[in-house]
Amino acid sequence: MKEFKKYVFITGASGGIGSASARLFVKKGCFVGLTDIDEKGLERLCAELGHENVFWQPADVSSGEQLAAAINAFAGHTGGRLDVLLNNAGILRAGNFENHRPEEYRQLIEVNLLGIINAIYPAIPFMERSDNPRIINLSSASALYGIPGLAVYSATKFAIRGLTEALNIELERRGIMVCDIMPGYVKTKMVEDASDELHLEDGESLLRPEEVAVTVWKATQRKRLHWPVGRKIRLLSALIAFLPASLRKTVAIQASHYRK
After folding, report:
1. DSSP 3-state assignment of 146?
2. For residue range 125-134, what is the model confidence (pLDDT) as tens digits?
3. C-alpha torsion sign, points 138, 95, 248, 260
4. Beta strands at 84-87 and 54-56: parallel, antiparallel or unpaired
5. Which of 7, 153, 185, 258 is catalytic?
6. Annotated catalytic, 153?
7. Of 151, 158, 156, 157, nearest to 97 (Cα)?
8. Cβ neighbours of residue 232 under 8 Å, at least 6 residues apart?
9. Domains along the chain?
10. Three-state SS for 207?
C-alpha cells in the first residue's frame, strides 16, 4: 500500500484556493479528501490528481450532517487518519449593506462560519490521534478591519479569526494546532464575479490561488497563528498592530482594494 506523508481534508475543494491546495498537497506526497457542492468539479479534480491519491464526496458545508458524513467516510478510507483539515469553503456578498436581503446574509454566515464549525466538530476525534495535526481556516485580510461594501463578509472573517484564536488555545491540550490564512483579493471565480461591486481596477494585481496554497502548505510545517498573504497585506497587518486606533480605519479604507 502506498505511504503518504499526510492525510488532508479540504472543503470547497473543486476550484480556486481549494483545488490549488489539493494539487500542491498531492505533489508533496499527501492523500487528500475533497468535498464541495460542485460534484462535477470534484470528479474532474479527482481524475486530474489520480484516484489513488484522493477521496471525494460531495457535501454542503452548511449541513452538519452532510459534512460529518463526508469526514467520517474519508477517515474510514484512511484508517482513521486525518492530519490536516483545510476549511476553505466560502461565499461572498459584496456591495452596499442594503443591496442584499437578510436571508442572503444568513447563507453567508452559514457557509463561511458555521461551515467551519460543522467541519471541526467531527474532525477532532480523528485529528487528536495524529502527529502534529493542523486545522487551517481560510480567513481574509478583511478580518484586519471591517471593510465598507463587505460588511457581513468581513464580520464572518472576524468571527473566523476569533474562533481560530480561541480554539488554538483550547485544542492545545489535544495536540491540535489551529491557524488561519489571511489573503488579500485572490484571482478566483468568486472574486471575479463580484469585481464590479468590489470596485477592482483594470489591471489590478490579484493573488493567484497557487500563492495562497504555498502559504497553506507552510502552515502545516510551522507554528504560527495568523498567516497574512501578499506583501501589501503583511505590511497592513503590521501597521494596524502598531498604529494608534484613530488611524486604523484610514489605513483599512485606503487599502481596501487589497481585501479578499
Report:
1. coil
2. 999 999 899 9
3. positive
4. unpaired
5. 153
6. yes
7. 151
8. 184, 255, 258
9. 7-258 (3.40.50.720)
10. strand
pLDDT in tens, 86-140: 999 998 887 778 888 889 989 999 999 999 999 999 999 999 999 899 999 999 9
> Per the structure block, which three cell numbers stand in for 7?
492525510
How far, in Å, CA of 100 to CA of 86, rounded? 29
Residue pair 108/91 in contact by the 8 Å Cβ criterion: yes
One DSSP character per residue, 106-141 reads: HHHHIIIIIHHHHHHHHHHHHHTTSSS-EEEEE--G
State the chain's maximal CA–CA distance in angstroms. 59
Residue type for position 140: S
Per-residue pLDDT reduced to its tens digit, 6-31: 999 999 999 999 999 999 999 999 99
pTM score: 0.88
Report residue 247 as a C-alpha cell: 488611524
Interior angle at CA 160, CA 219 and CA 154, nearest 5: 115
Q: How many CB atoms neighbour CB 152 within 10 A?
A: 19
What single letter denotes the amino acid at residue 221? Q
How many other C-beta atoms are found inside a 10 Å radius of the C-beta of residue 200? 15
Residues 124/130, Cβ–Cβ less than 8 Å: no
Q: Which three cell numbers stand for residue 121?
A: 466538530
